[in-house]
Design brief:
With about 1250 residues, the protein is of the alpha/beta class. Helices cover about 40% and strands about 20% of the residues. The protein is built from 32 helices and 43 strands.
C-alpha cells in the first residue's frame, strides 16, 4: 500500500483544479487567459492575486465579462464546482482542503508574498495529480515554492513566458526551480491544458502484477509489451544517468513516467520508449521527475518541535567541545531540511556552557539539488516557513532572495551519496531521512534502516517522515515519539547488517557486522550478563529481548526447545516445545505488560516413558549497561510421582552361592562406579577442554568482528573524507572560477586598481594602474608611498590612513601632470570575516566626464541665463504695465496737490499726499521685486558715490513725520551734528532707510513711539529704527529676513506688503559691506532694526533731492512725447504750473514733425510707444545735427540697468523710471542744465 507524504487525504473531486498565482501585471495576463478559455472546460479555476488589504477589490467584476463561467470572490468556505472561477478576497489567506476552499484573515505580520505559495501547497496536498499550478506576471518569487510541491505530488506546473510578462520576476523564479513543465504565453495555456487532460484520459499503463487483467489475448499482449517497454525505459535511464531505480516502488515509477507521457502527449509506454531512443535530452527530464527534490524549511513544524524538545537536549548532554555532535541528513534534496536541523543544533549548542560544536553531513543523489543546497540561496517566500527570529539570525537578504549565512553553511557538508550503495557515515548522534523511504520497496527500506542503525551511536536517534516508520526491522529501533516519527537505536541487539553494495566484498558476499560500541567502553557480552543472572537463579533459563528473540541459553535449557525442519528461528515461541508454547506466550505477554514476574500454569509432559510437570516463570529485567529490557524465562521440572521401595524380609538362611553372587555383584557395582567416576572425570576434562576451545573460538570471533568493525569504520571514515574532499573540490572549483573571473575583470576593466595591505605594501594591481603610478610586477610587496605617480596630489598617505581609521569610503577628483582627471577612491579591504586587511585604491579616468560636465555646465548656465533673461523681461513688462497707471495716478496727485484749492483746503492736500504715498509704496514694492530678482542673479547695478547718510535719513524721516503726527505717534529723530559720509549707491541707501522707517510706521499703532537714531564710531555708521509696535515672535526672528516672510504675527498680513522689504534690506546692506540685525522682546513689545555700514571720512557727499521754486522752469520749452493722452495732459499741466511752455506729441512721427517747426530746449519721451518707439525717435533726433544740442529725458516703466544703458546709448541724456515724481523730474532737469 502506498503511503502518503503528507497528512491530508487526497481530494474526492473528479475534475482538475487550476491555481493561478499573479501579482503586478497579472490582471492583464488573467484577462488573456480567460478570453482563450472555453466556458465548459470541466475544471475549476482559483485566482490568487496580491491585493492591498486596505482597499476592497472588484477583481471578480473585472474578470466576469471575459468568460461565461461564474466568477465569484471567496469570502467564506465554499465547495468547489467545475466550470467556475474563484477569486481571493483582500486581506485573506486561501487554502484548499478536500473539495472546499477555506479563507482566514491574514495577520498584519504575514508575508503577503507567500499567499500564492500557501494556496499552491494546499492544492497539491488535496488534489495531487489533478492539481495544476500556473505562475503569471508578478514581482518577487511568490509561487516558486508552491509549484515544487505540486510537481512532487504529480501535478502540472506552468509559467508565463517571461518575455510576455509585464513583470517577469515571478515567472523567472518559478522557472529557476527546474520544476516547470510548460513555459507558455498566457493565450496558449488553456488549449495546452485541454490537450493535456484529454491525453491523460487515454494513457494506458501496466497494471499491478496481482491485478493484471489477462482475460483476453489482446490484453495479455498489451500487458507484455508494456512490461517490456517499462524494463527498457529503466535500462535506458540507468545506462544514460548511472542511476538505478529498481528499488523504487512500482507505483512511484509508473506515476513519474506517466507525468512524462502527459507532458509529451503520449498514451502508452512503447511510444515513450521510442521517443527516449531518439531524444536523449528527455532522459534528463525523466531523471528530474524521478528525483523530485522537494522540501521546505521546518516541514511538519510539530515534528521539528518534538525533535528540539525531546532529542537535542539528550544529544548535547554531557558533551564537551572536543566531542562534536554528528548528524546525517540523508536525501537532503535542496538543503532545506539539512539547514533546518542545523538551525536547531546551533540553538541547542548556544545553550550549552561549552558551545559544543556540531557537523551535519547532508547527502543526496541529485547533483542539481546538491548544488542548490551548497549555494544556500532561497526565494523570499521561505519567510512563510521560518520565523522572524531565525530569519534574522541565520539568513541575509540578497535582492529577492535570502541566503544562509556563512557561519551556518560551514557547519553543513553536502555530498553526492547513494544511501543504497555508498558506505554510510559512522558514530552519528542523529540521522534525519524524511519522506525518502515511502518511495522505496520493502527490501530497500530494510537495508536502509539497518544501515542507519549501523551508522548511529548506541542510543542514537532516527528522524523519519510523517508517513514512515522504523518497525519494518524488528528490534533495531525503539519508539521515542510515534507522532513525530522519532526513534532510538537499540544498542544491545545483534543483527546482520549488510554493507551497501558498493562496499561489499567479491561476488557480492555481504559479511556479517557487529554493532559498533561507543569509544572507550567495554565490549558488551550476553554471556557475561547471563552469568550474572544465573548466579541468582539456578533453574535452566533462556534470555530473550522484548520481541521474544533468543539472545542466550543456559546449559540445560535446550531440552525444553525443539527445532523442526526448515529455516531456523530465534524466536522462543517458535523454538519452544509445542506443549509449552501457549502458556509461555501468555506468561511473556503478561510480564511485558505488568513489568512483574509471571508464573505460567504447570504443564504436564511425557518424555522417555516418564511423566513430569514443567513450571515456567517469565521475569522482566532491565540492564543499565545495555540500556535495554529483557525477559528471563526459567524452566523447573517436577516429577509426577515418586517410586517407592518394595523390600521384604530376607531369608535368614541364604544360599552360600547366592551370597557369593551378591558379593561379586557388589564388587562389580563398585568397579562400575569407579569406571563411571573415571568416565565422568574424563568427560569433565573434555568438557573443560571444549569450553577452552569455545572461549578461544569466541575470542577469535570477537577479534574477527573487531577487524570487521575496524574495516567498517575505515570505510565510514573514507566516506567522510570523500565527502569532505568533494566539498573541498567544489570550493576549490568555485574559488578557481572566482579567481578566473577576477583575473579577467582586472584585465578587461578600464579602471586602475591597487590592492595594498595595512602597511601600504602593494599586493596586486591592474594594468591601468600603471597609467597613474610607475609600477612594475617586481614592485609587489613594496610600499606604494615609495612609488612615483603622475598626480598633483600629496595627501595619499593621509587619505589612506583616514580610510583605515574611519572605515569609510574616501573620494577625490585629482588632476595628473599630463592634464587628465581621475576619480580616486580609497576603500577599506574587508575580508569575509569582516576584518580590515588593507585598502583598495581605484583611479577612474574621468577626463571625458569632466569635459562633458563642463559642456553640460556651460549649456546649463546658458539655459539659466536664458531663463533669467526671459524672467527679467517678464518682470520688466509686468513692471511697465503696473507702473503706467501708477505714473498717471502720481501725476494726478501732484496736480491736485499744486492746485490753488489744495493750498486752501487741508483735506484736499492730505488726500493728495495720501495718494502720492500709496503710489510710492506700490512703486517701491514693484522696485523691490525687481531688485531682489537682480540681486539673486547678481545683475543689480550699484553706482557708488559719497552719500550723506544723515541727509537721507533726515529727508525720509521728514517725509513720514506728518503721517506720524496724524496717527498720534511719537516720532523721534536723533542725528549727529556732522555729515555722515558713506561710499554707497544713493538710490539703494534710500531703499534701505525707506523700508525700515515705513515698516515701523506700518506696524506701530496710534499712541505708539518710533525712534530713528543715527550714530557714529571710528569706522562705521549705525542706523537704529525702533518702535513699540506689534513686535516679533521669538521663533520667527531667525527667518525675519527671509523672502516673503512676515514675522509680526498673523495680523502682519492685514497691514499690507509682500514680505520682501526686509529681505531686500539684508541683501542691499550686504552688497554695501554692512550688516543688519533684528531684535524683539516678543509679541506686543515692539522691535528694533540696526543697520551698520562702513563710513568714509572727509568726502564730499551727494545731498540727494532739493526743493525747487515754482518758477524753476520759467522760459523752458519742453516737448512731451507719450502715446497715453491722459498722462500727457496731466504732465503738461504740472510742467506748465512750474512755468514751462509744453508742446505735446502722441507718437514719434508727430514729434519729429513738431521738431522741424519749433525745436524745444528739452524733450521728455516715453520709450514703449506703438509705431516708432522712443529709442527710434531719439536716434532720429540725434542723426540731425541741428537738434543734437537738445537735452532729452526718457520716461519709462522699464527700469532695469540694461534698460537705462540702452536709453543712454540711444541718445537720451537721462532715464527716469515710472511713476515719475515731479521732484525727481525737476532734479534731473536741474542736473542736465548744470552740464
Amino acid at each position: 500500500m502506498r503511503k502518503q507524504s503528507g497528512g491530508k487525504p487526497p481530494s474526492r473531486l473528479p475534475f482538475p483544479v487550476v491555481g493561478l498565482g499573479a501579482s503586478a501585471g497579472g490582471i492583464e495576463a488573467l484577462k488573456v487567459f480567460l478570453e482563450a478559455l472555453p466556458a465548459r472546460s470541466g475544471a475549476a479555476f482559483v485566482v490568487v492575486l496580491h491585493l492591498s488589504p486596505e482597499h476592497s477589490s472588484n477583481l471578480s467584476a473585472v474578470l466576469q465579462p471575459l468568460t461565461e463561467m461564474p466568477v465569484s470572490q471567496v469570502t467564506e468556505t465554499v465547495t468547489i464546482e467545475p466550470n467556475h472561477v474563484y477569486v481571493i478576497a483582500p486581506a485573506l489567506a486561501m487554502t484548499m482542503s478536500d473539495d472546499e476552499l477555506h479563507v482566514e484573515k491574514k495577520e498584519v505580520t504575514d508575508v503577503s508574498a507567500a499567499s500564492i505559495d500557501l494556496f499552491f501547497r494546499s492544492l497539491a496536498a488535496a488534489h495531487r495529480e489533478r492539481a495544476v499550478g500556473i505562475v503569471l506576471s508578478g514581482a518577487g518569487s511568490d509561487g516558486s515554492v508552491g509549484i515544487t510541491r505540486i510537481k512532487e505530488l504529480g501535478g502540472i506546473t506552468v509559467a508565463q513566458a517571461p518575455a510576455e510578462a509585464e513583470h517577469s520576476s515571478m515567472p523567472h523564479a518559478a522557472i529557476a526551480t527546474g520544476m516547470i513543465d510548460f513555459t507558455l504565453p498566457a493565450s496558449e495555456m488553456p488549449q495546452r491544458l485541454l490537450d493535456f487532460w484529454k491525453n491523460a484520459k487515454q494513457i494506458r499503463l501496466p497494471a499491478e502484477p496481482e491485478g493484471a487483467d489477462e482475460d483476453t489475448e489482446t490484453n495479455r499482449a498489451f500487458s507484455e509489451s508494456n512490461e517490456r517497454a517499462l524494463r527498457e525505459i529503466m535500462i535506458i535511464l540507468r545506462t544514460r544517468t548511472a542511476h538505478d531505480f529498481r528499488h523504487y516502488k512500482r507505483a512511484t515509477v509508473l506515476r513519474r513516467i506517466e507525468r512524462r507521457l502527459q507532458v509529451n502527449g503520449f498514451t502508452d509506454l512503447q511510444q515513450y520508449r521510442d521517443y527516449l531512443h531518439v531524444h536523449p535530452e528527455e532522459t534528463a527530464a525523466l531523471l528530474q521527475d524521478m528525483l523530485i527534490s522537494v522540501t521546505n524549511f521546518f516541514r511538519d513544524k510539530e515534528a521539528y518541535e518534538a525533535l528540539r524538545k525531546e532529542v537535542l537536549p539528550i544529544v548535547f548532554r554531557n558533551r564537551t567541545a572536543e566531542e562534536p555532535v554528528r548528524v546525517w541528513a540523508a536525501g537532503c534534496a535542496t538543503g532545506e531540511e539539512a539547514y533546518s536541523i542545523a538551525m536547531l543544533l546551533q540553538e541547542a549548542s548556544a545553550q550549552t556552557s561549552e558551545h559544543v560544536p556540531f557537523q551535519v553531513f547532508a547527502t543526496d543523489i541529485d547533483e542539481r539539488a546538491i548544488n542548490i543546497a551548497r549555494d544556500g540561496l532561497y526565494p523570499e517566500s521561505i519567510a512563510a516557513d521560518v520565523d522572524a527570529t531565525r530569519m534574522k539570525q541565520f539568513f541575509s537578504k540578497e535582492g529577492a532572495h535570502f541566503r544562509i549565512k556563512k557561519e551556518l553553511r560551514e557547519r553543513v557538508l553536502f555530498a553526492l551519496h547513494n544511501v543504497l550503495s555508498d558506505p554510510p557515515f559512522s558514530r552519528l548522534d542523529l540521522v534525519c531521512c524524511r519522506n525518502l523511504l515511502i518511495y522505496l520497496d520493502r527490501e530497500a527500506q530494510i537495508d536502509i534502516l539497518r544501515t542507519f542503525h549501523f551508522a548511529l551511536r548506541p542510543g542514537g536517534h532516527l528522524f523519519l517522515g510523517t508517513s514512515e516508520a522504523a518497525d519494518t526491522v524488528g528490534g533495531l529501533f525503539a519508539v521515542v515519539d510515534k507522532k513525530a516519527r522519532i526513534f532510538r537505536a537499540n544498542v544491545a541487539v545483534r543483527t546482520d547488517t549488510p554493507l551497501p553494495i558498493a562496499a561489499s566484498g567479491a561476488h557480492g558476499v555481504r559479511p556479517t557486522l557487529s554493532v559498533l560500541q561507543p569509544p572507550g567502553k567495554r565490549k558488551f557480552s550476553f554471556g557475561d550478563l547471563h552469568q550474572r543472572l544465573v548466579e541468582q537463579y539456578a533453574p535452566p533459563s533462556v534470555l530473550v529481548n522484548r520481541e521474544s528473540e533468543i539472545v542466550h541459553l543456559s546449559d540445560r535449557a535446550g531440552r525444553f526447545l525443539h527445532y523442526a525442519g526448515g529455516e531456523p528461528s530465534h524466536n522462543i515461541l517458535a523454538a519452544v516445545r509445542p506443549e509449552l508454547r501457549l502458556e509461555l506466550r501468555t506468561a511473556i505477554y503478561q510480564a511485558l505488560q505488568t513489568q512483574r514476574s509471571v508464573e505460567a500454569r504447570r504443564v504436564r509432559m511425557d518424555r522417555e516413558g516418564r511423566s513430569f510437570f514443567v513450571n515456567m516463570i517469565a521475569r522482566p529485567v532491565h540492564d543499565d549497561e545495555a540500556n535495554a529490557d529483557f525477559i528471563l524465562v526459567l524452566f523447573d521440572e517436577v516429577e509426577d510421582s515418586m517410586v517407592g521401595s518394595n523390600g521384604g524380609q530376607a531369608d535368614d538362611q541364604r544360599d552360600p552361592i547366592i551370597a557369593q553372587l551378591e558379593r561379586e555383584l557388589q564388587r562389580t557395582k563398585e568397579q562400575l562406579q569407579a569406571t563411571i567416576e573415571q568416565s565422568e572425570t574424563s568427560t569433565e576434562e573434555l568438557k573443560a577442554s571444549n569450553e577452552e576451545l569455545q572461549a578461544i573460538n569466541e575470542e577469535l570471533r570477537s577479534a574477527t568482528e573487531e577487524l570487521e568493525t575496524s574495516k567498517e569504520e575505515l570505510q565510514s571514515i573514507n566516506e567522510e573524507l570523500t565527502t569532505v574532499n568533494a566539498e573541498l573540490k567544489a570550493k576549490v572549483e568555485e574559488t578557481s572560477k572566482i579567481n578566473d573571473d577576477l583575473q579577467n575583470l582586472i584585465t578587461a576593466n578600464d579602471i586602475g586598481t591597487i590592492f595594498v595591505d595595512r602597511n601600504m605594501r602593494i599586493k596586486r594591481f591592474t594594468p591601468r594602474a600603471t597609467d597613474v603610478f610607475s609600477i612594475i610586477s617586481s614592485d609587489v610587496g613594496r610600499s606604494l608611498l615609495d612609488i612615483t605617480h603622475r598626480l598633483e596630489y600629496d595627501r595619499l598617505a593621509d587619505d589612506a590612513a583616514e580610510a583605515f581609521d574611519s572605515l569609510r569610503l574616501i573620494e577625490r577628483e585629482l588632476k595628473s601632470t599630463d592634464g587628465r582627471w581621475y576619480l580616486a577612491r580609497f576603500l577599506p579591504y574587508r575580508t569575509t570575516e569582516d576584518r580590515i586587511d588593507g585598502a583598495v585604491l581605484s583611479f577612474v579616468d574621468i577626463t571625458s566626464r569632466r569635459a562633458a560636465e563642463e559642456q553640460l555646465r556651460e549649456a546649463g548656465q546658458a539655459g539659466l541665463d536664458e531663463v533669467e533673461r526671459r524672467r527679467d523681461e517678464f518682470l520688466a513688462v509686468v513692471s511697465h504695465e503696473l507702473k503706467h497707471p501708477l505714473n498717471l495716478i502720481s501725476a494726478s496727485a501732484e496736480l491736485i496737490a499744486r492746485a490753488p484749492d489744495a493750498r486752501q483746503n487741508g483735506a484736499i492736500a492730505r488726500a493728495a499726499n495720501t495718494i502720492r504715498r500709496t503710489v510710492m509704496g506700490q512703486a517701491q514694492i514693484i522696485d523691490d521685486l525687481l531688485d531682489m530678482s537682480r540681486l539673486r542673479t547678481g545683475k543689480l547695478s550699484i553706482t557708488r558715490s559719497a552719500v550723506d547718510l544723515k541727509e537721507v535719513v533726515q529727508r525720509i524721516s521728514h517725509t513720514v513725520q506728518e503721517e506720524a503726527q496724524r496717527n498720534n505717534i511719537d516720532f523721534r529723530l536723533s542725528l549727529p551734528d556732522e555729515p555722515v559720509a558713506i561710499n554707497a549707491d544713493l538710490t539703494r541707501i534710500e531703499q534701505i532707510v525707506w523700508n525700515l522707517v515705513s515698516n515701523a510706521m506700518k506696524f506701530t499703532d496710534a499712541n505708539g513711539k518710533i525712534s530713528v537714531e543715527l550714530t557714529l564710531d571710528e569706522h562705521a555708521a549705525r542706523l537704529s529704527v525702533s518702535d513699540t509696535g506689534i513686535g516679533i515672535d521669538a521663533g520667527m526672528l531667525p527667518q525675519i529676513f527671509n523672502m516673503f516672510q512676515q514675522g509680526r504675527t498673523n495680523t502682519a498680513a492685514k497691514r499690507g506688503g509682500l514680505g520682501i522689504g526686509l529681505s531686500l534690506v539684508k541683501e542691499l546692506v550686504a552688497v554695501h559691506g554692512g550688516r543688519v540685525d533684528a531684535h524683539s522682546d516678543g509679541l506686543g513689545l515692539g522691535a528694533t532694526f540696526t543697520v551698520e555700514l562702513p563710513r568714509i571720512v572727509g568726502a564730499a557727499t551727494d545731498a540727494g533731492g532739493a526743493a525747487y521754486p515754482s518758477t524753476f522752469l520759467n522760459g523752458a520749452d519742453i516737448l512731451l512725447v507719450d502715446d497715453d493722452t491722459e498722462t500727457v495732459e496731466t504732465f503738461k499741466l504740472l510742467l506748465e504750473m512750474e512755468g514751462a511752455s509744453v508742446a505735446v506729441a502722441t507718437n514719434g512721427e508727430q514729434a519729429l514733425e513738431m521738431l522741424d517747426s519749433t525745436p524745444p530746449s528739452l524733450i521728455l519721451s516715453d520709450l514703449g510707444m506703438p509705431g516708432m518707439s522712443g529709442f527710434e525717435f531719439i536716434e532720429a533726433v540725434r542723426r540731425r545735427p541741428e537738434l543734437a544740442h537738445i537735452k532729452a529725458v526718457a520716461l519709462s516703466g522699464f527700469g532695469r540697468q540694461g534698460d537705462v544703458e540702452d536709453a543712454l546709448h540711444a541718445g537720451f541724456d537721462a532715464h527716469l523710471t515710472k511713476p515719475v515724481m515731479l521732484d525727481a523730474l525737476l532734479s534731473t532737469i536741474a542736473r542736465l542744465r548744470a552740464r
